[in-house]
């Protein structure tokens, strides 16, 4: 056989040059349009709904993280800025977040039902189920962020109420201490020989005691610790003990409230997880119910067929008995 390798190479080269010449004459815009047309892919309804759901959850996450600082900061007594968030705005954020979370859960449930009803390739069905699991995980993470923010808000509101209850008691205690100090200063400034004033000067002395100039207390040095009597020291010690016990009890109450708030947040997180698990279980039960109804329909059809077959079998038996009886009668007649 002759070697035609050189002829084959020449033919290939000629075809390449011809195709290159043809491609140079084509319009570049038409080529780009053809490439774009080939690159387009069909987007199914499931993909469209899943993308919308992801966008909705992402918008909720961005909104919560954007307003997190203002939402958690329930109002500081030291801050005088006007960019704080009011309680009505926080309640509005809570309502909107809860509505969006509820809507997302309903959309996931509807997508699950639609995925189960559609007859597609097993790999496509498995892929869609994995997408739904990822969407549920993403939604759980956003629910956790929201529950943590709400728990911090509740905790700070409780702390603020507790502090507001403590303020009048502190003011009263400070006023009482200043009054005791003034009484001590007055008692120390009165000489020992003037403890029993004359009858004519009693009213004048009481007037002087009640109208003491506060500038005297500022100019004259006085050390309370070195000049307090044992009885007054005992009174102060008792007051300090009472205040210390009150503060300890209040601190214990605040700690208990903190632990309760944290437990409430944990319970809320567990509650959301259980709700999602119940949704999965409800969907599984719905699938089982659908399968059971189909099985019942099949069983009813089989029972009907069995009844028909049984009726036909009865007819055959009756026909056989009639034929046998007639044949016996005929044989008996024939023998006679």
From TrEMBL:
Principal subcellular localization: membrane
Coiled coil region boundaries: 233-260
Membrane topology: Single-pass type IV membrane protein; Single-pass membrane protein
Origin species: Biomphalaria pfeifferi
Pfam families the UniProt entry points to: Syntaxin-18_N
Protein purpose: Syntaxin that may be involved in targeting and fusion of Golgi-derived retrograde transport vesicles with the ER.
UniProt domain T-SNARE coiled-coil homology: residue ranges: 244-306
InterPro entries on file: Syntaxin-18_N, T_SNARE_dom
Family recorded in the similarity comment: Belongs to the syntaxin family.
GO biological process, one term: retrograde vesicle-mediated transport, Golgi to endoplasmic reticulum
Record field: transmembrane: 313-334
Subcellular location, record wording: Endomembrane system; Endoplasmic reticulum membrane
Entry keywords, A to Z: Coiled coil, Endoplasmic reticulum, ER-Golgi transport, Membrane, Protein transport, Transmembrane, Transmembrane helix, Transport
Name of the molecule in the record: Syntaxin-18
Cellular component terms per the entry's GO annotation: endoplasmic reticulum membrane; SNARE complex
Domain of life: Eukaryota
């Amino acid at each position: 056989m002759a070697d035609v390798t050189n002829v084959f190479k020449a033919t290939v080269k000629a075809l390449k040059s011809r195709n290159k010449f043809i491609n140079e004459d084509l319009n570049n815009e038409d080529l780009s349009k053809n490439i774009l047309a080939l690159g387009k892919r069909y987007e199914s309804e499931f993909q469209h709904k899943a993308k919308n759901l992801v966008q909705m959850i992402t918008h909720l996450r961005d909104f919560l993280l954007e307003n997190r600082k203002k939402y958690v900061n329930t109002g500081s007594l030291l801050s005088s800025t006007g960019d704080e968030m009011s309680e009505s705005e926080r309640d509005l954020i809570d309502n909107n977040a809860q509505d969006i979370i509820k809507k997302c859960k309903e959309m996931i449930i509807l997508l699950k039902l639609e995925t189960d009803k559609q007859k597609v390739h097993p790999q496509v069905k498995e892929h869609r189920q994995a997408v739904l699991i990822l969407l549920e995980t993403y939604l759980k993470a956003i629910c956790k962020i929201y529950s943590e923010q709400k728990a911090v808000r509740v905790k700070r509101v409780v702390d603020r109420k507790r502090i507001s209850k403590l303020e009048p008691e502190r003011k009263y205690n400070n006023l009482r201490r200043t009054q005791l100090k003034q009484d001590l200063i007055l008692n120390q400034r009165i000489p020992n020989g003037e403890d029993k004033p004359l009858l004519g000067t009693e009213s004048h002395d009481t007037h002087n005691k009640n109208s003491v100039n506060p500038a005297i207390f500022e100019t004259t040095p006085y050390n309370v610790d070195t000049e307090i009597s044992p009885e007054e020291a005992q009174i102060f010690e008792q007051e300090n003990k009472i205040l210390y016990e009150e503060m300890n009890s209040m601190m214990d109450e605040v700690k208990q409230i903190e632990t309760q708030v944290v437990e409430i947040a944990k319970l809320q997180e567990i509650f959301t997880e259980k709700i999602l698990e119940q949704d999965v279980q409800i969907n599984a039960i719905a699938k089982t119910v659908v399968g059971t109804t189909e099985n019942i329909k099949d069983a009813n059809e089989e029972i009907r067929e069995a009844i028909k077959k049984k009726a036909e079998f009865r007819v055959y038996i009756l026909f056989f008995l009639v034929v046998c009886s007639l044949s016996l009668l005929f044989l008996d007649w024939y023998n006679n």
